[in-house]
Design a protein that fits this description.
It contains 21 helices and 18 strands. It is α/β, with parallel strands linked by helices and about 575 residues long. About 25% of the residues are buried. Helix 7 crosses helix 8 and helix 17 crosses helix 18. The longest helix has about 35 residues. It is globular, with a radius of gyration of 30 Å. The chain has 4 domains: about 140 residues, Resolvase, N-terminal catalytic domain (Rossmann fold); about 110 residues, Putative Large Serine Recombinase, Chain B, Domain 2 (Hect, E3 ligase catalytic domain fold, Alpha-Beta Complex); about 160 residues, no CATH class; about 90 residues, no CATH class. The two termini are about 40 Å apart. The strands form 6 sheets. Strands 1, 2, 3, 4 and 5 form a 5-stranded parallel β-sheet that branches. Strands 12-16-17-18 form a 4-stranded mixed β-sheet.
Length: about 575
């Protein structure tokens, strides 16, 4: 039973039960795998009542999520509650319910140890306080990961074997076909002529014109009933559907598997020669927009739900805007979890500027580099290279930015209030030592140190459709608060001096200070007051600032430009 909690026997131990099921099948039943796991874990907690174990009412259930990834909503909530100090122990039915990946499990155990949280597997009792227990844990995790990979290999080999025989294994049949009872594609006599018409007319007619004609004629996709009994299909034919049909080689009678063209056992709806002609026309009209050099956050940017964001727009008209939009995953089709979209150019600019600001932030840079567990004169030299690395980053072209971001920032996430960059500490140290010659490439040899990341937070409201004010300024709730007149006067005078300086840009600070009959140093310090965080200025006007805050702290003390550092320095956190 690993990681005994570091609490006294008189303290109640808050136990959270985590359950997981790889598939969503059967979750609608009253008694399912998640409920069974919870009942066993709950009974185990009750048996430990003499040790002051208490079950928390919060449910952490991940139904339909694989154990090979940490991108699970309930697991993220569980980790967030652990970091907030609300949980003392995590109870699972088996170890593989928490993770089937050895590296992911080690990362989770490091997180639990950091926040002094215990971990218990009900059906696999062992103690990791000694070397033998840790050996057993690693063996169990290795076999769990091996079982998952073996299952994936079998599924992949079976699919490849079916494809080599020319059979279709793609789920929903393509437009113009339907599946027979034996699982083979049969030509749909009602919609196959529409597909042939698309391939014949597309070289001389636009896809949008074809879509309008088909809608005017009342053409729709074929209706069918899913295994769950839901009716699907019957949708009008839009431009996107036509373009998707035109680039699918299944209509020429081929299936493409890992770059190999395999003759399918179906009746083709167009010839291979006609299909090639259509591809040339389509590529000339719609050049590739998924260019990883131009859209250098492809494969890196994710939304807060963990969905990868793809590029949309940026083609056709010269002034078309580009957007990153969440991909349409199956588990998010619940009508509640919406896809999000962010402006591509703004997000890319913020990513580069946030990374450059991080490189010149010595405290954060030191924390990231020292997390590798090593210190030497070489590390000290690397810490001094942050400024040069930031300048080098701003001078790179899009190809160089793509190479560096792919290595140094393997993942970025955007939500309603901020952009988070997960900086690889190992690649960061390599980038700091890079001399700028050639293209920066990711290290070929990956070690355990390569898994360490440092999170960079960039507050910003990037998600389209949320035009909210991006500053933490709320209404004044303290009705009895009395503003300090000397602090308010300091803000007013600082604003006046800034206006005076901007109106006389042909004069030096010394000349401006002489006209105002104050010293140049005081003049410069007063100008600096204008760059206080807006919420700090609002608190001074409302009278809700910390009691110890005086003019001396603001004028004479250090004043970083980073607003978060200002809040910590002046006592607002």
């Amino acid at each position: 039973m690993p990681f005994e909690p570091k609490v006294s026997h008189n303290t109640q131990i808050r136990c959270a039960i985590y359950t997981r099921k790889s598939t969503a099948a059967g979750l609608e039943l009253e008694v399912n795998s998640l409920e069974t796991q919870r009942e066993v874990c709950s009974a185990y907690i009750k048996c430990q009542a003499h040790r002051n174990w208490a079950e928390l009412p919060q449910r952490y259930d991940d139904g339909g999520f694989s154990g090979g990834s940490l991108e699970r909503p309930a697991l993220k909530r569980l980790i967030g509650d652990i970091e907030a100090g609300r949980i003392d122990m995590v109870i699972v039915y088996k170890i593989d319910r928490l993770s089937r990946s050895l590296s992911d499990f080690v990362r989770l155990i490091d997180t639990l140890s950091k926040y002094e949280t215990s971990f218990v597997s009900v059906t696999q009792t062992f103690d990791t306080s000694d070397s033998m227990g840790r050996l057993v844990l690693n063996i169990l995790l290795t076999f769990a990961q091996f079982e998952r990979e073996l299952s994936s290999d079998r599924t992949r080999d079976k699919k490849a074997a079916l494809m080599r025989r020319g059979l279709y294994v793609g789920g929903t049949p393509p437009f113009g076909f339907f599946l027979s009872k034996g699982g083979r594609l049969i030509v749909d006599p009602e919609r196959a002529p529409l597909v042939r018409e698309m391939f014949e007319r597309f070289p001389t007619t636009s896809a949008s014109q074809l879509a309008r004609e088909f809608r005017d004629r009342g053409c729709t996709s074929r209706k069918f009933v899913t295994k769950a009994g839901r009716e699907r299909g019957g949708w009008p034919i839009y431009t996107s559907r036509i373009l998707s049909i035109l680039r699918n080689p299944i209509y020429a009678g081929y299936i493409v598997h890992r770059g190999d063209w395999i003759k399918a056992e179906i009746e083709p709806l167009t010839s291979k020669e006609q299909w090639d002609v259509v591809q040339e026309v389509r590529q000339s009209r719609f050049p590739a927009r998924r260019d990883p050099v131009r859209n250098y956050l492809l494969g890196i940017l994710h939304d807060e739900q963990g969905r990868r964001m793809k590029i949309h727009g940026g083609t056709g008209r010269a002034r078309a805007e580009r957007y990153y939009k969440s991909e349409y995953t199956s588990w998010s089709r619940d009508g509640i979890t919406r896809r999000v979209m962010v402006d591509a150019e703004k997000t890319e600019q913020l990513t580069v500027s946030a990374l450059a600001a991080f490189l010149v932030n010595r405290p954060q840079l030191r924390d990231a580099v020292l997390s590798l567990g090593l210190y030497s004169q070489e590390i000290a030299r690397l810490l001094r290279m942050g400024g040069k690395a930031a300048k080098r980053l701003r001078l790179l072209d899009q190809h160089g930015l793509r190479a560096i971001l792919s290595a140094v920032v393997p993942r970025a996430e955007v939500d309603t209030s901020e952009l988070r960059l997960y900086v690889s500490c190992h690649e960061l140290s390599r980038f700091l030592a890079w001399d700028g010659v050639g293209i920066f490439e990711k290290a070929a040899l990956q070690t355990r140190a390569s898994d360490r990341v440092h999170v960079v937070h960039a507050p910003a409201f990037l998600i389209c459709g949320h035009p909210r004010f991006a500053l933490p300024i709320g209404p004044c709730t303290a009705s009895a608060a009395q503003p300090k007149p000397w602090l308010v006067k300091m803000l007013t005078e600082a604003a006046e001096l800034r206006s005076f300086m901007l109106a006389n840009r042909n004069k030096t600070i010394a000349e401006l200070a002489r006209e105002k009959r104050i010293g140049p140093s005081t003049f410069a310090r007063m100008l600096r007051v204008n760059y206080l965080a807006p919420d700090i200025q609002a608190a001074i006007v409302d009278g809700t600032e910390p009691e110890h805050l005086t003019c001396w702290h603001i004028l004479k003390g250090p004043m970083p430009l980073d607003w978060e550092q200002q809040r910590r320095l002046l006592g607002f956190v």
